[in-house]
């Protein structure tokens, strides 16, 4: 790919969305009537995020008696790349050029990390692996590699690449082009910084409105500010351009659920349905179990009881 073309694509590439701080485990695992332990939920965040924003859902699952853990993928959480220039007062010129350690984060390294987590959790019982947005790539990768360690995959408006290899390829389809994330401005040149960089601390009202439209149109301004306050500025520039397709011979062996979000403007509903249909065609013997919520990309986090009820229902 010509260098200038790749730069252009990187600047406009969509990120999956925000969601997810340090790993959080809660609650003891109840047993089935058979005496077998119930599954442990392992939550995987999307872009620019960490495990912390899963807390509302995990708390609700704990109240229902289930064990759960939310992970920080490589380069996220306490491993995040936070440029000095991003701090207050911001140096926006330096922020546009300062290199990021996210340049070294690949899908392969992320899947390897998550596979190790799943392997250790699976030693104590079944695992339900839950991914949101860009986190769908990582849970797909784990199921491609070690399907025997995963009892169920759950995609919450998450990328599941089937006929097209990359997130970028899906975003430039007719179903993906209306995504509101494509209008959110990036900072600097990814070829120089090694990351897709966003200034979540911007006070520009146009920027804030674009972010709200993309991620939390059904939330309040206060909730939006609380969410983006926890976002890290850098995401790997490689993730959206790496082949992340399912392997029907391995991934196709794992039961899988898709939670459709009807009002999602980051991964529009037609794009969600496109990926679902492709996966069902690739594994007709094992189609998606579907659930639908009226929610924006992150709106369900502000009313987590509904999501936790859906997830608890998958544990039986």
UniProtKB/TrEMBL annotation:
The keyword Endoplasmic reticulum does not apply. Keywords: Hydrolase, Signal. Pfam families: Abhydrolase_6. InterPro entries: AB_hydrolase_1 (IPR000073), AB_hydrolase_fold (IPR029058), Sec-Metab_Biosynth_Hydrolase (IPR052897), TAT_signal (IPR006311). Residues 41-305 form the AB hydrolase-1 domain. PROSITE patterns: TAT (PS51318). Residues 1-33 form the signal peptide. It comes from the Bacteria. GO terms for molecular function: hydrolase activity. The keyword Hydrolase applies. Coiled coil: none annotated. This is Alpha/beta hydrolase.
């Amino acid at each position: 790919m010509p260098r200038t073309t790749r730069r252009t694509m990187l600047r406009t590439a969509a990120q999956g969305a925000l969601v997810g701080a340090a790993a959080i485990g809660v609650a003891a695992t109840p047993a089935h009537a058979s005496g077998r332990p119930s599954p442990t939920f392992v939550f995987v965040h999307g872009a620019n995020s960490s495990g912390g924003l899963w807390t509302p859902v995990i708390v609700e699952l704990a109240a229902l008696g289930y064990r759960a853990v939310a992970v920080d993928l490589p380069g996220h959480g306490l491993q995040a790349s936070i440029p000095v220039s991003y701090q207050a007062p911001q140096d926006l010129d330096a922020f546009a050029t300062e290199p990021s350690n996210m340049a070294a984060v690949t899908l392969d390294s992320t899947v390897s990390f998550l596979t190790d987590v799943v392997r250790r959790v699976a030693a104590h019982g079944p695992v339900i692996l839950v991914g949101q947005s860009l986190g769908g790539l990582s849970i797909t990768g784990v199921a491609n590699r070690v399907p025997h360690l995963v009892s169920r995959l759950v995609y919450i408006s998450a990328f599941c690449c089937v006929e097209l290899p990359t997130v970028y390829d899906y975003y430039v389809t007719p179903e993906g082009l209306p995504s509101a994330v494509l209008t959110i401005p990036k900072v600097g040149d990814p070829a120089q910084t090694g990351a897709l960089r966003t200034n979540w601390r911007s006070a520009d009202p146009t920027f804030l409105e674009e972010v709200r439209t993309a991620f939390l149109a059904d939330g309040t301004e206060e909730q939006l500010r609380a969410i983006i306050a926890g976002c890290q500025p850098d995401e790997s520039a490689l993730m959206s351009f790496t082949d992340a397709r399912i392997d029907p011979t391995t991934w196709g062996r794992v039961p899988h659920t898709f939670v459709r979000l009807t009002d999602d403007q980051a991964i529009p509903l037609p794009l969600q349905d496109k990926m679902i249909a492709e996966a069902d065609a690739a594994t007709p013997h094992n189609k998606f179990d579907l659930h639908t919520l009226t929610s924006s990309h992150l709106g369900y986090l502000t009313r987590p009881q509904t999501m936790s009820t859906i997830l608890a229902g998958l544990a039986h």
